[in-house]
Amino acid sequence: MSRKLEEIAALRAGWWGSESQPVPPDLIKMVEALIPTLARHHAHIAIAPHASGALLLEWTSGQIEYTVELLPRHGGMVLIVDDSERDDYFEDLVRTDIEELRTFVQES
Amino acid sequence: MKERPVLIQDGDEVLRRQVHPTQLDEVYTLTKAAFLPTPNDQDMLSTLRGRVSPDEAYRRHTEERHLQSAGTWGVSVDEAESEEVPAWDDEHVDGAPPDHASLDFSGHPAKNKKKRIAKVLRDAAVHRGCLYSSE
To answer: How many Å lie between the alpha carbon of B9 and the closest alpha carbon of chain A?
Structure first.
């Protein structure tokens, strides 16, 4: 996970076309600080940048897929719980806060 | 003269999508981020037409556009349309490269709907398998 974050941190403006934005360092640092919690609670969490400059975390627990979208420029973070089999979907945009994210990871 | 995009009618056509190396994942293979358009794209996800071979699509992306790619993946027109995402041939629209096609998410203004569609398209691409990889 640390290696993936290093690769993402190395991206520069234009990495996915002229309008694409790098992921801001503060979002990278926040996820780095969460690595012990993430590793303790879930066997695997996928991390990926988006061309908007957002950072996405994805993991599954049983049939439920969890996604966190950390938005750049203090846009907050989107917490998503998606149970496709039951067609049950929850999404909430909240202020970016490491403790709230830690709680979301622990409870998922 | 600027031309209008044309709706692609062949549901079996598999459009070519490039994926950045950082959007790969060792467990899920691809992340949803690879199929999520940005506001700057006007909700259009960039692909190439199925008549372009997967290796040629990769070459154009890496050698002509000078962008990184882990490989070429595919989504069919039918798979997109089943999510009410039409596929447009827009190669003759100003600024578009040859053989360009766009998957049009603009009918779904809600962000949560876009993410669900990105997941469906990602799953379809993973199920189909990588069409071309440089490795």
So the answer is: 28
Please list every residue in chain B whose beta carbon sits closer than 8 Å to the beta carbon of residue A8.
22
Cα separations in angstroms, B128 against A3, A58, A105, B49, B123: 28, 21, 31, 16, 9
CB burial readout A88-107, b (16+ within 10 A) else e: eeebeeeebeeeebbebbee
Q: What is the ipTM of this complex?
A: 0.89
- The pLDDT profile of chain B, 135 residues, written as one tens digit per residue, is 567 899 999 999 999 999 999 999 888 789 999 999 976 788 999 999 999 999 999 999 999 999 999 999 999 999 999 999 999 999 988 888 999 999 999 998 877 788 889 999 999 999 999 999 987
